[in-house]
Amino acid sequence: MAEHTALPPEEIERLRSYDREHVWHPYGPMPAKADSHPVVAAEGVRLVMADGRTLIDGMSSWWAAVHGYNHPVLNAAVTDQLGRMAHVMFGGLTHPPAIRLAKLLVELTPEPLTKVFFADSGSVSVEVAIKMALQYQRARGRPRRHRLMTVRGGYHGDTFGDMSVCDPVNGMHHLFAGILPRQLFAAPPPGGYDAEPDPAYLEELATLAARHADELAAIIVEPVVQGAGGMRFYAPAYLRALRELADEHGLLLILDEIATGFGRSGAFWGADHAGVVPDIMCVGKALTGGYMTMAATLCTDKVARGISEGEGGGLMHGPTFMGNPLAAAVACASIELLTGRDGRGRDWRAEVGAIETVLREGLAPARGLPGVRDVRVLGAIGVIETEQPVDVAAVQKVVMDHGVWLRPFNRLIYTMPPYVCTAEEVAQITTAMVAAARSL
User: One Pfam annotation, family name (predicted)?
Assistant: First the structure.
């Protein structure tokens, strides 16, 4: 790692002071009640802090930086594209990076998904998916089908359409409950990934779908892993059941693969665990390797044709930075690097499998600790669930003292490390997590 000079203490305090008073951070008050930690550089899997410390980033920059930081291949993709053009409007124009990325996504996603709509972020891609479902049903002559069915415990983003399909009870958007569209919620999927399907729960899903079929446009879920709603895993059989219900009642199945896509759960797509194919799929986060904000919403020919033949004549959405060339170029490089298409021999499946092994071994000592409710691992996701909400600042102090950066929330101390972490680095993350659990 290249050396980076630490900032003087007075400069660090000046930065923190201004940040505290003027920079509004996610999910926090203004002014901030706690200081954010200044970062001056990042390389490999480590963050270089302003005070000179280096921390292993156990969060992959909110699950996106699967290759780590300052990667020469991704750097080259951005700088090469920058020399050509940074951006051009996507209305009436197109460009090679976007076309190349669309081709890669069509090749890597299940066969029926052949149409690609580029979005600015994961949240926007879900908004687009919802809009697709509503326009499709309207075009089919079923305008009363304007609601979505989902399960509690889910999280799909912070914009208004997205908030309406997030958990309405335990989610972070309850303040807006009175003004959001009223969607249809089933209970959270019971058990874990390896649990036998519960017949009573399957019956509940079937009853809800049948009772409300005439007003439902689509079913939307995160496949197998519920992310920011609680980091819960559920049996693939439930996903298969939702696919069957969608087919039975003429609904579209939307799968939010923003967190689960590109190998995070041990399969390339979360849907692969169940062998199902959605009508609409959202991808983001790891799409660009954590370099730039970009997402995509893919759909089948049937959905695209239905929308395009309807009264709108097309999908009524068009972000200013849609298909940004810089983001598209680095996304192509990231996907080729991840899948080994660049000829460098990367094996994402082996990397994720090795991380899973170390996470299972390293987090096992947390089982049975006072205050710990559950420990679970799937792919490159490791979770310690506590009995009570954690003190975020206190937990972060413990893990930072162990040379690790994590961002716990609610009752969860969890990690989604970069795939390029060594076994020793993952073990350091688990040691920090167990230490945090012991400190509760």
Answer: Aminotran_3
Of the candidates 407, 406, 412, which has an alpha carbon nearest to the alpha carbon of residue 386?
A: 412
Same domain, 232 and 313: yes
297 marked as binding residue: no
Point out the catalytic residue in the list 167, 256, 272, 279: 256
Look at residue 170 in the predicted model and tell me its pLDDT. Answer: 66
Measured distance CA(197)–CA(152) in Å, rounded = 17
Do 331 and 206 share a domain, yes or no?
yes
| CA–CA–CA angle 190, 196, 201 (5° rounding) | 45
What's the structural domain count of the chain?
A: 2
Tally Cβ neighbours within 10 Å of residue 124. Answer: 25
Query: Both 377 and 318 in a single domain?
Result: no
pLDDT band with cut points at 50, 70 and 90 for residue 121? very high
Mean pLDDT, residues 184-209: 96
Determine whether the annotation assigns residue 318 to a binding site: yes
Residue 2, pLDDT above cutoff 70: no
Beta bridge partners of 226: 232
Give per-residue pLDDT as tens, 229-283.
Answer: 999 999 999 999 999 999 999 999 999 999 999 999 999 999 999 999 999 999 9
288 and 403 fall within a common domain: no
* 277: containing domain: 75-339
The confidence score (pLDDT) of residue 173 equals: 65
185 and 47, same domain (yes or no): no
**Annotation marks residue 285 as catalytic:** yes
**240 & 370 share domain:** no
Residues 412, 288: one domain?
no
Asked whether residue 237 falls in the same domain as residue 127, the answer is yes
Tokens describing residue 404:
């690790």
Residue 17 labeled ligand binder: no
The percentage of the chain sitting over the pLDDT mark of 90, rounded to a whole number, equals 87
* 3 within domain boundaries: no
* pLDDT at residue 343, rounded to an integer: 75
DSSP string, 1-69: ----PPPPHHHHHHHHHHHHHH---TT--SS-SS----EEEEEBTEEEETTS-EEEETTHHHHT-TT-B
Check if 33 is active-site.
Answer: no
